[in-house]
């Protein structure tokens, strides 16, 4: 009986309807409903203080981040003056998807993520997206928009990120205005319908994120970027079992964070995370690289290289930005007179200085690798001298250790289980009455004459679980609002250009990995000085970074 039942279960199902256009890899279905439920029901693991999420008052955020070097996620809860204290500006009145379409341009094309495959979905116009949002839940297909770039739109001029983000962002700090174009990834709108789930990922280039919920709610599961967790993440990202394994089962110290309207999250770079959307939500957010997180940012850049993440999914002009960053800090560190030297050195924090050691090593490697110097901005005539001078200044201060982030702590000896030992999502015991998605379904023919293999069209479970929780916490979730259905206005702001969104899709799309999991595993273990032939269940990895 059990045997027969199991044979009917599948880890993933294949969307045969799109096989010819997308290829097999893009058609792997993810059991997002079960994964989302696991996130919502997740019980936090014991935390190392260095890695726990801090709840801070809006007026204390900047001081907290500067005094801790932005090592842990910070959340500022909604309050009457939170936005103004953070320096966040949003349009007056309610911002609906329909209004976004009005302000950005109804014919503007947006990239979507198909939640059931975690890959690129159809391209919609904002007009189509507004209609999609106005349709009743559950929507089919389930689509998430996380990369609506607001640059050059009317909405852009009505919105500002937190002032701290503008202060930390290396593009603001170090990118010379004469060098165009600059990487513009600081301001996006995220439009997500009820039931959306974004599987574990690290934002591109190890960039940090600001994330302000305008309406609706979100549930994050955050994974501390310890050496162990990042190694497990790389292995999971490279595995052909990625779609069927809940990454949190392989990581340690995961934390759940629920956000409702008015809340703001500052997530430092390099933290793997996944996100559930329990109700239609509108979020403003963006990405930025900082001088506080250089070692981890560079680690993630290297991870993207190893995973062969396509340039379309990567932080734009990353190498150029790192050269400008080095030049910026060199100007800060370089003593001009004896009096100013001391002052200048103390204006650069210990985290930045440690990070600069990693940056120098990386720039040197890039110089050695580069055949044509194409990623080196032409304003740097003598890049070797630049790096050497920086190293000398840092050495003089006694900062010589390379690739070290002093905040990374020892976690209690996690055991790296072989991926094959992981129970696939499809074999989880049912978690609720409506849980039917582990059954392989007989394809049905839809009204459109298409094969329907969707097995996860009921998302109400999320709303139930979340609203029970909120009522317990006496924090009412924002009312579920649906944009009014109304006639599409024909007048469009004529001067608006259609600006293609910079892709900001997760660094490790499940479909594009070419290495076999066993070779990745071998290499990871070898990198850690471990013999890959030893059974991994016997290995204990020490956090020693
Ligand atoms: O809000 C979401 O659904 C995903 C947010 C996120 O992590 C991202 O866009 O990188
Ligand atoms: Fe993200």
From TrEMBL:
Database matches in PANTHER family: PHD/F-BOX CONTAINING PROTEIN (PTHR23123)
Organism ancestry: Eukaryota, Viridiplantae, Streptophyta, Embryophyta, Bryophyta
Short name of one Pfam family: Cupin_8
The keyword Chaperone is assigned to this record: no
Domain JmjC: 150-305
Protein name: JmjC domain-containing protein
GO CC terms of this entry: nucleus
The organism of origin for this protein: Ceratodon purpureus
Gene3D superfamilies: Cupin
GO molecular function: dioxygenase activity; metal ion binding
């Amino acid at each position: 009986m059990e045997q027969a039942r199991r044979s009917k279960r599948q880890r993933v199902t294949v969307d045969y309807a799109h096989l010819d256009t997308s290829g097999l890899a893009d058609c792997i279905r993810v059991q997002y409903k079960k994964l989302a439920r696991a996130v919502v029901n997740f019980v936090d693991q014991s935390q190392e203080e260095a890695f726990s999420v801090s709840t801070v008052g809006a007026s204390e955020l900047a001081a907290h981040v500067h005094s801790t070097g932005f090592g842990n996620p910070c959340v500022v809860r909604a309050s009457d003056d939170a936005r103004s204290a953070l320096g966040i500006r949003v349009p007056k009145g309610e911002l609906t998807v329909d209004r976004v379409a009005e302000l950005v341009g109804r014919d503007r094309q947006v990239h979507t993520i198909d939640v059931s495959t975690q890959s690129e979905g159809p391209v919609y116009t904002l007009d189509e997206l507004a209609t999609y949002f106005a349709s009743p839940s559950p929507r089919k297909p389930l689509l998430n928009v996380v990369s609506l770039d607001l640059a050059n739109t009317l909405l852009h001029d009505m919105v500002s990120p937190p002032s701290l983000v503008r202060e930390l962002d290396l593009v603001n700090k170090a990118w010379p205005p004469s060098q165009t174009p600059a990487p513009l990834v600081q301001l996006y709108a995220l439009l997500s319908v009820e039931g959306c789930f974004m599987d574990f990922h690290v934002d591109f280039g190890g960039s940090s994120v600001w994330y302000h919920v305008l309406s609706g709610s979100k549930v994050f599961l955050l994974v501390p970027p310890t050496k162990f967790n990042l190694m497990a993440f790389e292995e999971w990202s490279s595995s052909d079992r990625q779609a069927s394994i809940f990454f949190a089962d392989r990581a340690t110290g995961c934390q759940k964070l629920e956000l409702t309207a008015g809340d703001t999250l500052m997530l430092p770079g390099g933290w793997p995370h996944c996100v559930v959307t329990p109700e239609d939500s509108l979020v403003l957010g963006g990405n930025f690289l900082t001088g506080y997180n250089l070692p981890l940012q560079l680690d993630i850049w290297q991870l993207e290289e190893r995973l062969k993440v396509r340039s379309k999914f990567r932080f734009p002009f990353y190498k150029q930005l790192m050269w400008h960053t080095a030049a910026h800090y060199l100007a800060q560190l370089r003593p001009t007179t004896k009096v100013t030297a001391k002052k200048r050195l103390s204006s650069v924090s210990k985290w930045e200085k440690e990070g600069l050691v990693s940056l120098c090593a990386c720039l040197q490697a890039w110089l050695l690798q580069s055949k044509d110097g194409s990623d080196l901005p032409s304003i740097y005539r003598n890049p070797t001298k630049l790096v050497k001078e920086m190293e000398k200044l840092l050495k003089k201060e006694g900062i010589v250790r390379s690739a070290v982030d002093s905040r990374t702590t020892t976690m209690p000896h996690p055991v790296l289980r072989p991926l094959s030992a992981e129970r696939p999502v499809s074999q989880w015991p049912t978690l609720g009455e409506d849980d039917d998605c582990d059954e392989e379904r007989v394809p049905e023919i839809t009204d459109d004459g298409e094969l329907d293999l969707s097995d996860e069209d009921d998302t109400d479970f999320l709303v139930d679980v979340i609203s029970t929780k909120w009522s317990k916490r006496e924090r009412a979730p924002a009312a579920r609002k649906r944009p009014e259905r109304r006639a599409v206005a024909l007048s469009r702001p004529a001067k608006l250009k259609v600006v293609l969104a910079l892709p900001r899709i997760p660094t490790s799309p499940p479909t594009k990995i070419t290495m076999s999991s066993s070779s990745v595993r071998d290499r990871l273990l070898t990198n850690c000085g471990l013999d890959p032939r030893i059974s991994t269940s016997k290995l204990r990895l020490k956090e020693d970074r």
